[in-house]
Amino acid sequence: MTAVARVIVDVPSRETDRTFDYLIPDRLSGWVEIGTRVAVPFGGRTLQGIVTGLGADAEVELARMKPLEDVLDAITPLSSELVQLGVWMSKRWLCPLTIALQAMLPAALKGRAEKYVFPAEGAEWSDEETAQSGGLLHALRKGQPLKLSGLLQHYPEHGDLLRRWLLDGRLEERQKVEDRLSVKTVQTVFPSDAETLKRAVAELPARAHKQREVLAYLADQPEPIGVQRLAEAVSTTPSTIRSLAERGWIDIRAVTEDRDPYADRDFPVSLPMQLTPAQAAALLPINDALEQRSNEVFLLHGVTGSGKTEVYLQAIQRCMESGREAIVLVPEIALTPQMVERFKSRFGARVAVLHSRLSQGERYDEWRKIREGRAQVAVGARSAIFAPFSKIGLIVIDEEHETSYKQEESPKYHARDVAVERARLHGAVVVLGSATPSLETYQAAVDGGRPKYIAMPERVADRPLPGVRIVDMREELKLGNRAMFSRELAEALRDRLDRNEQTVLLLNRRGYATFVMCRSCGYTAACPHCEISLTYHRGSHNLRCHYCGYAEAEPKVCPSCESPHIRFFGTGTQKVEEALAEAFPGIRVIRMDVDTTTEKGSHEKWLTQFRERRADVLLGTQMVAKGLDFPYVTLVGVLAADAALRLPDFRASERTFQLLTQVAGRAGRHELPGEVIIQTYDPEHVSIDSVRGHDYKGFVTKELHVRRQLGYPPYGRLIAITLSHESVPMLLSVGEQFAMRIREKAAALGISSDFTEPGRAALEVLGPVSSPIARLKDRYRFQCMVKYRGDVDASFLASQVLQEMGDAVKRGGLQVSVDVDPQMML
Ligand SMILES: Nc1ncnc2c1ncn2[C@@H]1O[C@H](COP(=O)(O)OP(=O)(O)OP(=O)(O)O)[C@@H](O)[C@H]1O
Ligand SMILES: [Zn+2]
Ligand SMILES: [Zn+2]
């Protein structure tokens, strides 16, 4: 019987989206399991791949089968459960399996970097083991890092031993990332016993003061200590310390250290709080499900400030006590120090944190902590859903309505759906938390009973929700106020300055371009490659396209009519900042937007400043709306509340309501009561009017009614297929064929295209029409939208048509992108 590995090669195309069989050579037997990354010969090249299956017989004759070339990691990075999840994802979102699998790996593991093997710090082997290893251990102990591939080649008969020791931790594997070993090592002093130290002091020459001090320090504090740290502690140089090692009085060894991005911060220990009755009632069914290990999904619908986080924390505690692991997803933007601190303070080093602001190396270290079982809780943004745990008991998704849980590039997965599937594979509990649940989740809870609905309708400690006033800016204009701030908002702001309280100002900028326009002829500067207005950047005085990166200098005269009256238009945060400085001299403003938060750590820096009350106003875009919990914020102002309502997206109302409710929720969360002022040109709009009474149910009822009539989610589902090409006629003809074939297939299956009859399965294809962004990077874009309802496998139909038309698409040089359950309609 010959062992065979089924491998998915890392070439993301439809033709290679299947497994290929390879022989497992003896040298590698015992190293290959499901999830192992391997190097394989493929079409004359060596490619990277992932083993997704093992078998004894092969689909092609053994004689024609090639052997695997190499194993790329000693510790298999993916489990068979994650591979299974990947298979599910590739079907769910119509993407090649390799793309789904690669999305689960930390970036540091993606290249074909060589792996090195080292003995672990303090590892010991018996004489018997040393003898058994036939020179292998001897080679390793010389201290030189040895390549894993080399070891496997030189010691083929000792592969089992190597693997066993890697698994029991006596050997470690490391990888070069960014030209350095991906594991950080620290030169560490190991003091000898007190006796030796005493003798050393006696032997030292009289003038060796510093060396004496070092020895005294170590005699006092016999714990291992970093050379650098020790040098600082006794204010000497590392070379002084090294000279002691040379004389054999102390030992200096390299010790691996995790790059813990939070290492220099002390987290005060936090104990579980006494729950309010509402929290206790919410926790009860969650704990029950954990206890019974039943695969439940809950929607925890708690208003802003109702204390959802404490419920998560105590559920996680329960989960950990039963020996299982927990994943907590929070939106990238909410991964503030404040949020991280809540978890670190409660669970300490058992928490791994994963987010994009960490360096590749830092992320890899956190990932290893999870993979090697040193962490029990992973807190992170979207991709943390793939945390390589093996016995998950609980998955929490905070702010479950957030759009950032949907990845916009392939694999276009939604972390919420992945969470539900992953929890099913583990028999785990899912908690979806939000003050403003997505309509999909809410409707499923109310109509279908899964998720189970849990409500926390009040804030903790009887704190009231803030009062909300809506200001009609048209009225302001009628009364002659042309300023950016209404009289009410200006007055409230002044009031806060007098009382030394703080204000959060949200500029809803989505759909509100900071563009340049000529006031004489109406010319607006647009990207020559995309159908998009260019955005003005004050710092560099240039105009930039946010889609393709095109940039040009700010025009002095209108390129169209040569008028000098061309100027920067629209309301950017910079403009608001200027207006604030003008209206309130001396006001201290922190501006948070894409321009001020690109630098690593800047986000945190601003929030810390604001928390320490070194500013009066926190002004920003969406990123100031979520997760913040500052006791002195008593006023929230919203400028241009309706800015995003006109976007060509059926979720525009829902998003506006969620954003306004979330930002309103930042006010009055502690002792001081809060107030919210929303400026708008459209005060009657249901998205704005409902915020006044914190009326989620009122909003949702109206909005669901509209969705039901139009057959939009949650009452129907969508698949967006976008085609792009330089030539419009080409696009139109392929697009038409596309739409037609799907319609034909549906008709052949007897699926109606009539959505008016409630409850009946239906499918229709809208388009092809020009996409809302009609041209990008010199390519025109057309869209077909498949809308369907009921028992229809539209993904399957779409993928069939894609396959059938694959050749035509390829020959014509078209690009096709498929988005199943799209969240962004642009
Ligand atoms: N049982 C409790 N007793 C006293 N204070 C509590 C309790 N639970 C939570 N709090 C406090 O109430 C405040 C709000 O809690 P938390 O931030 O968890 O709310 P939330 O529901 O997550 O709100 P949001 O959705 O707005 O983020 C916090 O300052 C928290 O420390
Ligand atoms: Zn002009
Ligand atoms: Zn462009």
Folded structure, characterized:
The protein folds into 6 domains: about 5-110, GIY-YIG endonuclease (3-Layer(aba) Sandwich); about 115-180; about 185-255, Arc Repressor Mutant, subunit A, CATH 1.10.10; about 275-460, P-loop containing nucleotide triphosphate hydrolases (Rossmann fold, 3-Layer(aba) Sandwich); about 465-515 and about 570-705, Rossmann fold (3-Layer(aba) Sandwich); about 715-820, Alpha-Beta Plaits (2-Layer Sandwich), CATH 3.30.70.600. The chain contains 25 helices and 34 strands. Residues about 175-180 have low confidence and may be disordered. The protein is globular. β17, α15 (about 415-425) and β18 form a beta-alpha-beta unit. The strands form 8 sheets. The chain has a 7-stranded parallel β-sheet with strand order 15-16-14-17-18-13-19, sandwiched between helices. The chain is an alpha/beta fold and about 850 residues long. The structure holds adenosine-5'-triphosphate (ATP) and zinc ion (2 copies). The site of one zinc ion has 8 residues, from loops. One zinc ion binds near residues 520, 521, 523 and 560. Keywords: ATP-binding, DNA replication, DNA-binding, Helicase, Hydrolase, Isomerase, Metal-binding, Nucleotide-binding, Primosome, Zinc. This is Replication restart protein PriA.
